[in-house]
Amino acid sequence: MKTKRALIALALLAALVLAFGASAMAQETGGAAGKNVSGASSPQQGLTDSVEMGNFLDDLLAKQMAENHIAGAAVAVVKDGNLFFAKGYGYADIERKIPVDPEKTLFGIGSVGKTLTWTAVMQLAEQGKVDLDADVNKYLDFRIPDTYPQPVTLKHLMTHTSGFEERWAGSAAADAKEIVPAGEWLQAHLAARVRPPGDSVAYSNYNAMLAGYIVARASGKPYAQYLQEHIFNPLGMTHSTAQLPPPENLRDFVSAGYTYQDGAFQRFPDWVAQPALVPSGGQKVSVTDMARFMIMHLQDGFYGDAATGIRILNETTARQMRSTYYTPDPRFRGMAHGFFDFSDNGQRTVGHVGYAAPMNSLLLLVPDQNLGVFVTYNSAGGGGLNLPHTGFQRAFYDHYYPVSAGAPVQPQAGLDKRMDRFVGSYRQTSFPYTSFMKVAALFGGMTAEIRDSGDGALLVNYGGDEMRLVQMEPLYFRQVGGMYAIVFREDDQGRITRMFLDPVNYTAFDKLAWYETASFNMPLLAVCVLVFVSMLLAAVIRFVWIRLVRKRGPGSRSARIASWVIVGVCLLNVLVVAGIAWGAMGGGMANELLEPPFLIKVSLVLGALCVVLTVGAVVYAALAWKEKFWGVAFRVYYTVATVAAVAFVWFLNYWNLWGLRY
Q1: Within-domain flag for 421
Q2: C-alpha dihedral sign at 79, 81, 83, 84
Q3: Percent of the chain residues topping a pLDDT of 70
Q4: Domain total for the chain?
Q5: What mean pLDDT, rounded, does the chain reach?
Q6: What local confidence, expressed as pLDDT, does residue 590 receive?
Q7: Cα 236 from chain centroid?
Q8: Is the pTM of this model over 0.85?
Q9: How many C-beta neighbours within 10 Å does residue 320 have?
């Protein structure tokens, strides 16, 4: 049971970063299931009184911080080109009793920082230094493999349609001595291309890492310097930096990060981002500085007044960044040029979520209302509060832009009744395909399950919530009493291959074959481990019986070798499972951006040795029957253990658990 809990702990840690970098978008819209974004708007209250907003946010943040054990938070709201409201809550440093200052406290904003990177990319595109539609290899000093005929472009990177797998392990270090230049890291940790560019959205931090490196190469300046000179300084963002470590004059203003354990706040361990990671979410910014950035985007690239203002982006460029580039279906929220469509309660909204362990942030831009909102939490308890359509956004939109319930969803008559073809397990395309972190999918954090309700509807379980969806058009389903919708894709033979779940727009979902599902792999793992443990116990009993009770010799040399081989295979297999589990719980996985801890690396190496020994077990299983080493019963038992070992090798290979695959 402890080993199982440990594996679950590993899986949950892996799933965290997939939530926009930092991942746990698996529960992206769980709190919004009762809302219908397409419902008719009631008379809008909107933002009219900063005092009223202060009272509302004071109550909301006090409640969120108390219920979720958050040490410090800050909010900035801009309206009509001005700072409408800004306030800090709690502590930036509990030990030194330093309160959060909205103007001075720097927070790790995680993947919200990608919007800074995409803004830089668009600036360079305006200058003709990059072409958004060109092969990115044109701007690199190493080569992205030609896995598919279609090249990867900057538009693919900024919309997460590049086809790269998710990649983050090793993008941070516990010691500054482990830091390497961005280009060196990107080449050594090249993310695999797992689908053709433009095929589907699949969030990957590698996209922005690569884009940041291109910014540096195309501009001729280090990434941090480029942001400082072309975004931070022009906008007056005096408490913002992409420099590692932060400049001396800002270090005392950087908020600490906190977890909550054993009834007390615990300071999160310090870590150092690899330079390659910074463009993907390693920037540190105060909320009032982010207010300036939001105003610039809402004013189509311009900041300030007519006399002293400055243009950061051309008007057409700024509008392009908010325009939809990719969506799997015109009825669905999609991807803009660097922003996600977070539209809610009838308000067209673009934004981004951020996770910089353990801090969590949310950026929302509502162009039609000339409104921007940025909220950040410095504690792990903020995870979930920053997710779109839930937590902070849910409370804010329901308060200021409430909607009445839409018309009840009614299934259409005469449509496809073969609900069974939609039934099955579906896994996110935003996924570490070639890393050992793939094992997280075994525990449901990256999957959705669809069942047939038996009455013409589908029951979809995602992120712990079960929803009922009815068919509106062929391959198109809507949630009853909620905001979810599904579009399925089928192949030439009418088989369902993929689904898209609105408003979960950072990933698609591929339908799994039976052997890829947790319902097959978990029992397989349990049976294999049971056989291995029983063989180890049997070997001990057999040794004692032969040597001490019957006092008989050990038999032929081949029989002795065969016995040692199967015992070695079973022991190593058990150690692999236990080592990965224990490594996840206590071997350094507190920050999933770090290199895997020593215990996990050892376990992955042992997994490779298991593969070699299993080949030997197969050979000796055949010899045992040919040479009749033992009685029939033990030969059968030996064969069963060998079959389990072969099955376990398949398991290790499928889940990337042998060899240093991370």
Answers
A1: yes
A2: negative
A3: 89
A4: 3
A5: 89
A6: 54
A7: 32
A8: yes
A9: 17
